[in-house]
Fold these 4 entries.
Entry 1:
Amino acid sequence: MDEQYKMTANAQETPVIEPGYTFGTVTEKISAIVLTRPASNGWFVGFGIAFLMTMMMLYAIGYLFLKGVGIWGVTIPIGWGFAIINFVWWIGIGHAGTLISAILLLLRQSWRNSINRFAEAMTLFAVACAGIFPGIHVGRPWLAYWLFPYPSTMGVWPQFRSPLMWDVFAVSTYATISALFWFIGLVPDMATLRDRATHPAARIIYGMLSLGWRGSARHWHRYETAYLLLAGLATPLVLSVHTVVSFDFAVGIVPGWHTTIFPPYFVAGAIYSGFAMVLMLAIPIRKIYNLEDFITELHLQNAAKVMLATGLIVAYGYGIEAFMGWYSGDRYDAFTLWNRLHGPYAIPYWSLLVCNIFIPQVLWVRKLRSNPVALFFVSLVILVGMWLERFIIVVVSLSRDFLTSSWGMYYPTRWDWMTYVGTIGMFLAAIFLFVRLLPMISIFEMRTLLPEAEVKE
Amino acid sequence: MYGIMAEFDSAQALIDAAKRTHEAGYNKIDAYSPFPIEGLAEEIGFHRDEVPLVVLIGGIVGGLTGYLMQYWMSAVDYPLNIGGKPPHSWPAFIVITFEMTILFAGISAVFGMLALNGLPMPYHPVFNVPRFSSASKDRFFLIVFSSDPKYDAAGTRSFLQGLEPRSISEVPS
């Protein structure tokens, strides 16, 4: 009994930071990545590839502006296609950043301090990628600003009873609050970089970004209050964003969309894919920049556990969808279920079940949860699976609805693929720049985790 | 002269020094640290944090703006029959009201905090002390401002000396 207790106690003591660090060494180690470490050849190659992919996206979008959405595979009955699939996929990925920075802060999970900064950066870049798609999907993208209520000479206003309008407000609020939360978290670290930088231009740029932060006790007090309140505001916000995204579907009457399980199951799926992306970024970054002491096995374990839990919620969502397809007695719902399992899109549907439900169950094994290579590939599988999930939701329901005469098939074109792959490039290019220009781990929050930060009154 | 500044090695030393300085009757003092230290602001006599009030007001204004905007646009200025719903269909307005509440409250939290802190302020006299660059790394500073009624250059200096700091600097204004 005693022995067993000791073993569990030891297991829980996997440290958030490896021992032996001081305020000085933590500061130097993180700021040196930005200030003194030269950019490696690997960085240039990686950034170059990501940059070329971004250019491909701009080319595809440029051609779209020239020709119109006819170059895409979207057609009636499937008018949504890749644009909406990718929008939902990207915005979902962003959710993990807010979960880590806000919800885990409220829950006093100190392990978040090493990963919140780049998870928030990931959120911002993912939301930027997501934002492209509805903008270019509207058909006349130069008029996309019509979505916002502004006093126009036409004398008309947006239609606020539509979930698509709710989405405009939810996503733009989410982007704004995420950017503010991220920036405000960076301010004290900008002061650190300002004081460490030797190049005059770097001193001026970081100095301006630090807003003249000097670490006054009064400032810290208001800062922490504001930060905590922002976390409290961002928590319901992030839950509302994917809820509203799911309303885009659930408020419609199309079979397979019109269900009340959608909001919780979308939110869980968002966090599921977001943590997968966090791991796919964290695992190579901690290796390349020797940050294993700060992003320890504990972080990988915890992220894997969150994926396991949210993955099971997603599996429950699939189960309820299937059950309701049968139990509702609605022949169209029942047909949607049959069509997913046996219809023309059966292969993506079965792949989705394999990727999202079956393969991630290996995370029950402790050994695999602490194996970075295994985690990296499980995360990749989950990201593919979550993309397939949105494909199934958007395409299968639209392709075969109530009237047999209006059935159709959806085939993405190369322009669809170029735009989608291009946004991945844009996301990666932004991450590459971020790790070189800004401290990817919050330095001041790492200092608070050190034993020497403890005070008694 | 802007004030006299003492440098300490640890968070504990700073919090003890701040407590003794405040107890000695100095009111216009400030403490600087590379990370937030719980209880430090109270030790230097800071008790009124208005940030929550600013956020509350921002949230209320945002919620009212969101709802009234939708009400006025959909029911007054441009009533449109959508699926037979009444022009003032309040359940449909809840989502945007909520989002606007969060948006305004969040913006108030950030800009309210910065305004109350007097930031951005790229220049400040404390930056003239060369050692102060460590305040963003691993050193802790306490300053007594020359505007303090109890301040006198020699007396304050010897008082701070008694707190066993690592160094003492004069901050030119």
Entry 2:
Amino acid sequence: MTEKKNTVVEMEDAVVRFAGDSGDGMQLVGNLFADVAALAGSEIATFPDYPAEIRAPHNTVAGVSGFQARISSKKIFSSGDLADLLVAMNPASLKSNLKWAKKGASIIVDADTFEEKIIEKAGFPKNPLTDNSLKDYKLIKAPITSLTVAKAKELGLDAKSASKTRNVFALGIAYFLFNRDFKATDIFFEKKFKKKPELINVNKEILRAGFNYAETLEAIHSTYKVSSLKKSEKGKYRNISGNVATAWGLLAASEKSGRPLFLGSYPITPATEILMELSQHKSLGAKVFQAEDEIAGICSAIGASYTGSMACTTTSGPGLSLKSEAIGLAVITELPLIIVNVQRGGPSTGLPTKSEQSDLLQALYGRNGEGPVIIVAASSPADCFYAAYESAKLSMEHMTPAICLTDGYIGQGSEVFKIPKVSELPSINPPIAKPNDPDYKPYKRDAERLARQWALPGTEGLRHRIGGLEKSDVTGNVSMDPLNHEIMCKYREDKVNKVADFIPKQKIIGEESGDLLVVSWGGTFGSVFSAVKELQAEGHKISLAHFRNISPLPKNTADIFKKFKKIVVAELNMGQFVKYLRLTLPEFKYYQFNKTQGLPFMVSELKENFIKNIQEK
Amino acid sequence: MEENLTVERSRVPLTKEDFVSDQMVKWCPGCGAHAILSSVANVFPKIGYKKENFMMVSGIGCSSRFPYYVNTYGFHGIHGRANPIATGIKIANPHLSVWVATGDGDSMAIGGNHFIHIIRRNVDLNIMLFNNQIYGLTKGQYSPTTPMGKITKTSPQGTIEHPFNCGELVLGAQGTFFARVVDTNPKLMTEVMFEAAKHDGTSIVEILENCVIFADGTHNDVTAKEVRDDAQIVLKNGEHMIFGKNKDKGIRLNGPHLEVVEIGKNGITENDILIHDQYDQDPGIHLMLAKMAPPLFPMALGVIRSAMFPTYDDMVEEQITFAKANSKIKCVDDLLNSGDTWEIK
């Protein structure tokens, strides 16, 4: 036993990455680590990085599941580029995650797993723990498996169940390193194992065993303290993931509008959590229908919308493809419908668990005929709440479908969320037709928005029929008249364009003119914002216009663009937003910076590109 | 109709005229759909709900123009999707009497998946399936119910596909209500639709419909005047399954099979003939009845099965009522502030 270490290093910002076999419980311990930090008042941002398979072959690189948590005492906008601490539960996770560790980072490995065959399976030519290849890192070789099993045996657990708690032992080590207490995690175990009470104590003890083991380690010279956020706005806070925030934003919009929530959806990674979350909230009247497929999901929502529900469907890229025809039906029937698309890498099944922004063109144009829709893109996990809320508001008030784009990175990532009051959210006033209104016509429009009225079945005096065939202006009767079709196409287009009168102006971060304007949209906000801020601090004349409203674009977009010498559009695809801008605002020259690796932008690579753009005149 | 308390009844008596829309009916002269439309307009006032509470839904196909011709709330969807649209409508507003007009292509080909799932869930609505054994609106291609060997525009040498038997599909998907009618018997059609409306759950009414243009006479072996007495049996609950011009034929259970017997021959009496029990929870006999077809058997018409099972929409409401009574989360502010939170002052 060595004596308790007293050196505590104050850190402003720390990135911790947990990596292990999928099934090792890395997502769970990663989330627990972040939650505890958030409860202690730190700013947090998380990023789960896991494989598409539930249990890929044991000890292979393909099966590695990672979870990155960034904790900070200042305001942060991304989950960080590289880790200060990497916890690797086997050779494969070390192999695949070493590139995400900073030079000089601490690396804790489960030394028990570094057996010859397992090392070979991971693709290391030699044992990395002994061949000096990790000399640039602070390596902590901890026999996590054997210590966990020994402790578990003491507690009366069999070896198989014991090895399942290795993650909790590792979490204990991380808690020691970051001076965390056990209170919140103990409560978590008590809730999680309510039905298996014998596991409550086991987990609590193993967490403490990991903590105590770390305390005795010679290799650990100091521990870290990330203090709580100092300059935070007053208010109540919580940790929230993007998918949960989306679900809650929809619930808030339903309550605010007085329109009951209906969700028709089919499970698909990485959007499933929204469906699961909403199905928990029947007490708020949410009707959640898990349909037989993506098409039934959206079609049931369209039916519900016709009856007056705030109807939603949630999906990811391939599901959006399947829903295309039905989105057109909602466009022509001019019904509100909120389609949440949590984007992932494509085409086809693509990279189900990895993030990308490559469904933008599908969202804009992926329908037969002229089928314009409203598109709102969320910027961050917490912003998913507001993006979903805004999509619902615009869709209902303007009587046309809205696509809310998020992505796997922000959907499954989490951050601190300042809890709003529902009473302080913007009002939502859907144009519901009045009973027995003698002037009611299914396709009569208001001048401001061009929205038709929402006449709900069951209401006296408003019986009418609508459907997917072209409608006659005003009456809504079936019409194959050529000129009428042209009028209706224009109405549908103008209606979406008129939304621009009701959305906020595009904001600019930084000076209103300069050498370089960075344009980005959606889930990349954190890293792009951080890169631009850092370059501004370094004295560059660089500003950022990060778009949330994609269709229509804010009215002042061109005014912003014309004040910069150069514009670069950074996005996680091969250049979809830039294509759209070239079509919509062709008077500007756009440079582009793209990445399609299924990974978020790193601040460093963005900075490098932006500097290059500033220097190349 | 006390069975269904969720749909508000009309305070004034309604007539057929209340349900006729102002749109021109554009089906071919002689099409069986005209008779179906007339039956619906006849039966809706009898059902007695407020006219605003009827909701007509359809997909794509000749059958699916139906909503435009009935003066209720109506929604004409996209091909194959009438059933999920109707599911959403009924879940969202259980106070509506929801009717689906669909065809053999709409519900058994492109919408086959939705068809089996709506049945399995037992959503409380009524599906009128117009089975003309052909794709009419696209001008004469074979459908999933076209008899094997039939020459159509896409099967010049005859189809090589085994057709679906609608009743078999419905019962295989755990259907709680299945009835079959022919478009030439409007009286039976009206009676059966009334029964369908009474049933709590997904009611499927298969209508053997003639397409005068592309499959004229496709149901002649059942409906033709000269054969129909021996080729049809109209099932009535609690009554012996007797048919034939002279009411001397019956259906008997022989071992595990049904057989047609003649009363008075070989010592067979009325007591040997099966009695129809449409309410039997066990679908065994119902399935055998649904599968009967000429020439060996008469085609079973009327209500074949009408079994009581909980409906999907009722259970949705029950779960919501339970959750509202038992959850601490009563509004979104409660939700936002639930779980782990902290305050900065």
Entry 3:
Amino acid sequence: MPAATADQRLAAAVAAVKVDLGWMYTDWSVRAPTLESSTAVTAMAQEEVGHARVLGGLVPDGVEGEGIPCLRQPATSWPELIGVVAPVELALAELTRRLAGCRHELLRSRARKMAEEERFHELFVEGWCGLLGADASEVTAAFADGLRRSQDETAAWVEHLDALSAEGAILDAGALVEHCLPRALAMGREARA
Amino acid sequence: MTVPEAGRVYEVFARGRQRDALTHVGSVRAPDDGLARAYARTTYDEEPWAEMLAVPRDAVIPVLRPGGA
């Protein structure tokens, strides 16, 4: 089997992360703090898996994408879940916006609808990060713990995507690191202080 | 661990096509406008709406009330 191309490996990596996010959200779909937040994570799980299926269509059989390891460990509380997924969702929202305008026709066409849906995931994590970062004691500590687990791994994953994107001439080198990471890494700075 | 989330009620309106009238589709409770948008969209996404709006219930101005009060 020929080696996968950079665009295929990039699609595989994004699909892998979306599958893992889908599982994490599913795990919380009946135990989020409110009916609205349970409904939201249920809908987000469906969208993540749908996006993964669409991207999977660009990936040859047998090609595994590089994921984010912390997404494969269960979150023990809602604040921890939000802390873990927030940097990833913020990076994905920006990533899909960039891909919706990229030079790769197939990725570009598939990223447009994803970017529209990711905007609401972004709103969801922004809202929750604001709530949890402003709370006291154990809630903020759990949230900050989740962030600690996720931010470095999300940064490494975005750097990996950036290298693939440059290799495949999908986006300019450095574009993903420049645009996807600042907010993902700034999120919850107060909570971690 | 008690997670904070209270906020206010937002009434949600949508229309299927631009020429359709806005229809009240339900409500969500959210602590801010951003989460209200996220919740409205994920709760009432059963149709491919052309437009969806959320209005804080406490911003609605009563014009006529049941009983005439």
Entry 4:
Amino acid sequence: MADAADPFAGRLAEGRSGGRRGEPAIVLAQIDPPAAAQLQIWPGKREAVAKALAPIGITLPEGRDLSNHFGRLCGRIAPGRYLVLTADTVADVAAAISADLGAVADLSHARAAVRISGPAVEDLLAKGTALAFDADAFPPGTLAQTSIHHMGCLILRRSETVFDLFVFTSFALSFSEWLTDAAREFGWRTDPSVAIDQVPAHSS
Amino acid sequence: MSGYRLPERGALIDRSRPVHFRFDGRPMTGFAGDTLASALIASGTRLLGRSFKYHRPRGLLGAGVEEPNALVTLGAATTREPNIQASIIEIFEGLRSESQNRWPSLRHDIMTWPLSIVNQGLKAGFYYKTFMGPGRRAWDFYEQVIRRAAGLGAAGKEMDQSRYEKTNAFADVLVVGGGPAGLAATLTAGRTGARVLVVDEGPVLGGSLFESRATIDGLPAIDWVRAAVTELQAMTNVRVLIRATAYGYYDGNVVGAVERVQDHLAERDPDLPRHRHWTIHAGQVVLTTGATQRPLVFPGNDLPGVMLGSAVERLIARYAVAPGREAVVAGADDSIYRTTLALVEAGVAVRAVADARPSPPTDLAAPIEAAGVPVHAATLLGQAKGSKDVGRVRLSRCDASGRPTEGWSETHSLDLVAVSGGWTPTIHLASQAGGPPLWSPEIDAFVPGPPREAWTAAGAAAGTFGLDAILADGVRAACSALAALGRPTPQSTFAASDPDAPQMAPLAIRATGLGKGADKAFIDFQNDVTASDVKLAHQEGYRSVEHLKRYTTLGMATDQGKTSNVNALGLMADLEGRPIPDVGTTRFRAPYTPVSLGALAGREIGGHFRPVRRTAMHDWHVAHGADMLTTGAWMRPRVYRRPGESVTDAYIREARTVREAVGIVDVSTLGKITVQGPDAAKLLDRVYANTFSSLTVGRARYGVMLREDGFVYDDGTTWRLGENDFLMTTTTANAAGVLARLERHLAVDWPDLKVAVASATDQWAGLAIAGPKSREVLRTVVADVDLSDAGTPFMAVRKGRVGKVAVLVTRISFSGERAYEIHCGARDGLAVWEAVHAAGQPFGLVPYGTEALGTLRIEKGHVSGPELDGRTTLSDLGLGKMASTKTPFVGRALMDRPAMISPDRKVLVGLRSLADAPLRTGAHIIAERMPQDMPSLGHVTSPTFSPALGAYIALALVSAGRERTGERLTVVDPIRNGTPTEVEVVSPHFFDPEGARLHG
């Protein structure tokens, strides 16, 4: 039986499909569930929060950028609202933010994540979401929030050809079904799972 | 045998690859690259279909998407597809095609003869006049007969198993149509580095250049096309989509296109879609959609062998097919000379060229006359005759405005007539995304009106003719698109030298040779609408274009009037004595050509129709025999069926076990929202009807939310985990809606509140453990919590552990029994569930599903979704006393409007069946047995069999129901043929109304 704590219930543990045209053009790898927290900053407190977060290695990014400080990622998902993703813990984030600065909600169990890469990765994503994926419109190191096949999805572009996709945990299986179905024409295989702070090996 | 394959030419066919296919069961052979139409005509088959209404024999009229006649059914069983134009289907090995609307065969269609007798009666409006109207019920009978006699192909009955997909594309410039203007635009924009997407409905780019005798930049047109395609394919910023039809133009510069990925292949790849729908998001759109040639309207103009000149040229140039041996060419524009030359060069004997204009262009006519073909000026095609195909035509003279005159006439025996009634720019997309089309008398056609979206039309689509001008127009359109995008515009020119360049304006010619005894002259071939039908419509007052269309069915069905609209309008304008723009304009809506429904659905079919949400315990439920049910997006166990149990047996057993011992249910699907910040309690006071600021840390409270209009919206418990930290729970169905309301309040209504909200539904897995033995079970499995009534009283929230997993334990009851909920991080949900399940076995613990959950809450009179239906108030539900009288809350201002406090409102009551018969959701409640003229007093909302009471019971909403306690009423369900059932009105708190068991 699959690992109970695996939101994909083993469906992405190993697999392969297609590849009729040689090496599969899509590689899937589960991301070890990272610790995650949503940080809301009260109006006027951004600088104070930035100062409070500096000692624990979290930088508040601008715009759609994804800040990455030794593998602790932070992206802005709404005005004054940030998502922190890190391989270790978000307890220190909650501890760093006092009630007069903002609020921190631990969402470490609320997201499932998968890394997709390969030469056909943009064509694969285009099937699910109406976003332009050329590097000008969506450069590496930025994020987008969208929906794919009726499932809310947070997309981090880690490099030209590597994307990390986050969905609600309860949608993990449905999402993996969509992903492997949409990838059929390109051929896909799975790699061993990776950690969120693992820097993509290649960026072509 | 009129058509035959030419020894040379054929830009699109591969003579080294013969292809075998079937037409009406007969084995046929063509070449790779042939269309079904070209292969059939090459093999001498020119009878391709029977007409819609009169079953007249029909051949090919056009050679592209404008073709109205040659509709066939392809495939069989799961791949069967009717009404496909033979002119666009590329043949492949093993293709099966069948003609339509004929019986027993295409050649011998028995409907032809009776219809030729009665067809005088089948004019426009015949069915309405004959069968419909006051007192005429005949239509009900005749409709069956008529539908069998008339029509197009029949759809298959088996499910289409093909794969369809959808995708998105983004482009700075979208070019629709890859003919000369489109290629010029694509090259111009592509060379600047802009992201360009060019879409063409054909299998190759090039469009009319295949038929061109011109040179471009010193290259023969075909070679220039090949060079252009090679150059475009090398550009990484340019994407070429072939076999893709841009069918619709939508707001926000979005264009819908369908790519036929595999329809032309004999061996289909199961991993590839058959069709792929493209949603194209374009910065600017260049519409180079070309133009469609119109037929001439004269008696017998629908005989097989009468074809558009453009179709004749295409058959010769692209497929090396001569559609006849002896021909006449007729029309009133310069294109007839190029058609004639193509025929002459292909070796077809052209007997005459009839140009309706008084003095034909000498430069174009000279080479034809030099080839020995007589060119007749001021000459019309009077009529065509033949039995199953065209056999002879009569030419006659006309005046300078194209009207027939008496005198000279000449008859030719032949098997091919090539006609041109002028050119209609293809303005469908422009019309969908623009103002009304504009009439251009110079070209006798409509051109695009003002754009509403960011597009530029160019080339023939914009009414520009002549290759040099078309290429220049493509460049202009690309430059204007680039300029609008703020990009530099390049210097770009393409020099064409075209011996067939038009020299003289066309002459508008309308229907000719009409009159008593003449054969039918068709305007709309697909719908069998004739010139006399238009005249009849005019006589009867249907003179507006919109009335004309509906009265005669002109311009309907699959071709949407591509060849007929302008001819019909022109004739109506003549009859009215008014110019065409005064009579009306033709507008278009999507789709330009038919779109497969599969392409619109994509992969959202079957199990992929909607994604589902699964809890952490999903696989456990399935492994333990649960019937899984989707409730909203969530998959939930309905019952855990044991061998031999029905659903009813199972839920009764499960509910009974909870009342007698203990059970667990997966409540992970409950909506959960974190509400944090110094003003969190203030927010809760405002969104709930009852107060939360008084709630102490470590306690939970039941709350009800109203909508602004005062009706109940949602309910649930909210737990205070810390001074500034609440966890709100909502119903499973309303989780997203409640979060959106909170976000809106914080962003718009009360931006001063320091509160953060986040969806935490997926953060937590949860189980409820209920029953008199629930505490005993928990004592063996939960650590760090004092489970005594003093340590964990009703509505307490405690932090503890199950094994190593941190959990929240809340003492909450939906069932009325002593009960607890245990929540933990979602990924630990299964481990905690299994631990509790194992710990409960010595106590007889069973898992229970949503059916038992429902039964237990109905027995207690707890409201849920069926009662929170958006029409009930707090007091309807017996919750009126909850509303705070001190603090204002959402819905407070409107909850006491007169109608909402009226004494006859439908309020929550219990019903107990007196007949040992189940009650059904939605059944109505009346005072007497007979349902006639009885007002409904209300309806059943939540019925069940109560194992605790041993009776069928239900919650219901009944008018002034509380005053009816003890009355006997009748539940009726006439729509579903339910038996009327007598019930007694009782308190909704059926079981343990004092709540003693909560503490038992």
